[in-house]
Amino acid sequence: MVNDQIKNGNYRMYYEFRPQDSRPQQLEKCVIPWFAERLTGHTTVRMLDIGCNSGKLTNAVLTIVRKALPGKCCTMLGVDIDEQLITVAREQHQSVGLHFESTDIYEAANGTRQLDPIGAALEQAGSQRFEVIFCFSILMYVHLNHGDDGLRSVLNYLCGRAEFLVLELQSWKKYRDHVRRMHREGGGDYPSYGELTWKGNDGQLEKFISDYVTQQGFSIVDSSAEKNEFNRNIICFVRNS
């Protein structure tokens, strides 16, 4: 079970190892004010958090957005591959408009999952897209498990369902460190790792991903000026009109 958590990033003790999470402050200072200003004409702001874990950051983000958009109906769906974490999220974070569901984003993106709570949420709302999709430090696991094509399929899925897309990307150094840890702790290897062409230090990997998102009809509109305690920026993209 521990090896599965390393493989997919669904760490059951994540927030105990990261008690000082600076991302809510990063978002509140720059990213959320930017898109909140542009969503003032919306009566409802629907949001999606991919890889929500136990929901702590998901709940914090919803609180910040509601503060930035008083009087608006702001909802948040958090999804995670781990059903146990979803159970914890439901128990620990209860708020009107806050929902948690278990899904594998790769399976959702490739139509191999019978029940897709993301699609169901959009269908129920009568909408094609969420106003905002958040994806914090989860794409590395998609990339390692499913290769360049798998990552592109997930990015296509997210880009097709977002007006604003907020990404926190891991560096290539983090990839290499994680692969070594996976092997060291008996989890085996990632078969796709040696075939990755989207890679490189000094921001090259991040640029591959950012450039691909912009090619899907998005523009980078904001990036956190300060990196967080894991040396990562948070990047906000907006769909071109």
What features would you describe in this structure?
With 241 residues, the protein is of the alpha/beta class. 45% of the residues lie in helices and 19% in strands. The chain is built from 10 helices and 7 strands. It has helices at 2-8, 14-17, 23-37, 56-68, 83-92, 105-109, 117-125, 139-159, 172-184, 204-215; strands at residues 44-50, 73-80, 98-102, 130-136, 162-168, 218-223, 234-239. The protein has a 7-stranded mixed β-sheet, sandwiched between helices. Strand 4, helix 8 and strand 5 form a beta-alpha-beta unit. The longest helix has 21 residues, at 139-159. The model has no long low-confidence stretch (mean pLDDT 89).
Characteristic terms for this protein:
single chain, 241 residues, alpha/beta, 7-stranded mixed β-sheet, 10 helices
